[in-house]
Amino acid sequence: MEMTQKKGSVKHSITFSEEKFNFSYQDKTGSGDSDINYIDLPVKSSISIQQNEWLRNVGYLWCAVGVLQLGFAIVNDGSLAGKGFWLVLGVGCIIWAQFSKIKYTVLSTEAGNVFIIQDKQHDEILNELNKRRKAQLLKLYGAINADNDIENEINKFKWLAEQQVITKDVLDTRIAELEFLKVQDTDSGSNPLN
How many CA atoms are closer than 13 Å to the CA of 84, on its beta-carbon side? Predict the structure, then answer.
């Protein structure tokens, strides 16, 4: 499954596969791609905004020039014909700068940052990535490991809860199961998990 986002000259694609996904990008600065395991995705994200600040600032400057020209013409009882040109041009630049602004959700991984454009597909892409991340973590760490120390198993399930992979109820259930095994271990003198 592949999902593509595009805004202006920016194009991002995420191709989902079983164990990992490919994030590719193309914009006016270049292009590239990374293969990333779902379990490497962070719980928390950040926001980045790409905008043409030069165009916006020039727009503000031209608006100020236009307002000064209009004000000067009004104070001196002069003709207003053509005096609003810089104001109109400045407003147009500000509108274009706002229209071309791109807001991203950024997921930082060791393989690189994943930028998801905040558009109509944003939530769907994030939900799919999180769903696959949780499934991969549960597949790897969701069951009680009989070869592991009980305290390590309890810490593993606490970590899964911190990663928002399991709920508090599931965590409490797993800890109760492990505590029960710990009591049995103490009573029998041998570790049922080892």
Answer: 6
Q: Where are the beta strands (DSSP E) in 94-143?
A: 102-109, 112-117
What single-letter DSSP state applies at residue 130?
Answer: H
Contact 70, 12 (CB under 8 A): no
Beta strands in 42-87 (DSSP E): 46-50
Per the CB < 8 A criterion, the answer to whether 46 and 108 are in contact is: yes
DSSP type of residue 72:
H
Q: What is the pTM of this model?
A: 0.69
Per-residue pLDDT of the chain (194 residues), as tens digits, is 888 888 888 899 999 988 899 998 988 888 888 899 898 888 888 998 888 888 888 888 888 888 888 888 888 877 767 777 888 888 888 888 888 888 989 999 888 888 998 889 899 999 999 999 998 888 888 787 767 777 887 888 888 888 888 888 888 888 787 777 766 666 665 555 54
Pairing state of beta strands 102-109 and 20-27?
unpaired
List % helix, strand, coil for the chain (3-state, nearest 5): 50, 25, 25
Looking at domain 2-51+101-136, which of 1.10.10, 2.30.29, 3.30.2010, 3.90.600 is its CATH number? 2.30.29
**114 — phi, psi (to 5°)?**
-110, 120
